[in-house]
Amino acid sequence: MSEPISVSFREAFFFWLKLGFISFGGPAGQIAIMHQELVERRRWISEKRFLHALNYCMVLPGPEAQQLATYIGWLMHRTWGGIVAGVLFVLPSLFILIALSWIYMAFGHVPLVAGLFYGIKPAVSAIVVQAAHRIGSRALKNKVLWGIAAASFVAIFALNLPFPLIVLLAAITGWIGSKWSPASFKSGGGHGAADKSYGTALIDDHTPTPAHAVFSWAGLTKVLMIGALLWLVPMAYLSTRFGWDHALTQMGWFFTKAAMLTFGGAYAVLPYVYQGAVDHHGWLQPAQMIDGLALGETTPGPLIMVVAFVGFVGGYAKALFGPDALFMAGAVAATVVTWFTFLPSFVFILAGGPLVESTHDDIQFTAPLTAITAAVVGVILNLALFFAYHVLWPQGFSGHFDVASALIAVAAAVALFRFKRNVIHVIAACALIGLVLKLAGLV
Known about the structure:
With 443 residues, the chain is mostly helical. It is 72% helix and 0% strand. The chain is built from 17 helices and no strands. The protein has helices spanning 9-22, 26-41, 47-58, 64-107, 111-139, 143-157, 163-180, 217-242, 247-259, 266-280, 286-297, 306-317, 326-352, 356-359, 363-392, 403-417, 423-439. Helix 6 packs across helix 15 (363-392), helix 9 (247-259) runs antiparallel to helix 10 and helix 16 runs antiparallel to helix 17 (423-439).
């Protein structure tokens, strides 16, 4: 097998750009694509180093696939390599979602579009149930973790506790548990061991850590200061230009907090986004949140990009720049939300990358994160019930039960669980069914 040649910054740039357009399938699909391209085919990085980076990204808040791309880009081509990889992973989906959000807001009541979304909504309910099952089967390895998941469900469903408090309580439980019963909080190692070799890689198992990836207090301080400035300058501008209570400023602040709470992936933070964006700020309606998740599922990039839809709908509906600039208001709000959501991810990788080795196997570090992941399962189950309620009883329990939506949801669940069909295929089929029912006047 031939030795891999060095990779220029230009070649890496075009690969990351391509990845941004083909990264469908959620975190699992995106990680599989990167593994196939970077480990198996191009051999830019070895299996062991790839999994080592992935395990670090999995315990961080934020989209793990995007952070993995940032990490590998940083490892290969220093800071700018990481920034380019991470930005290009997100940028195509931002442009696509702005366009789709505009179509949704401008033409959402046209029978064609309304029919498509009628079928998509029940499918999304089934997809969220599948997400709870998928994460739960990997995370809930013993009775202790099952108990944490059950307690988090009760906390958010019955007690209506805020999501950040649930995360904090789970982390404290994990930290205490690491002292009293460390075996109950050992991470599951869900991505397996590095037992395969695809030939010599550019960044191989025993390739020395490059100079720029060696930890130094000066380097850490520099990254944290630049990251703080990149957050502070736009936030200060929004506050002075529009005021603290303006929607754009509040979006920046709210999604900064959301970015710190995305342990366990996008599904974990959606309840928090719902609580803030729908209940507290009123940027969008419950049904619109379900539609936004559907759009996020069918576009490339990390699923957390659904926040761009939330921003666009909020800016558009509130007519932030007046009735004659609705698209501009939506596009600016989507961009602001995306900036504040993803900025922490870059800081986590560029600041924390050199510390990976010292924290990877430390039970006091991983146990709180294991407990948070267990709590996330209960939170996602609550989200599934919330979506199902709004789909099956669109006017509330006092209104009629939507039989057609229920049948579509059951069909989607069977396709996902029994036949293991691709999420995008399921959404497309359900959208077609919804369109046929709407055009036939059956719903």
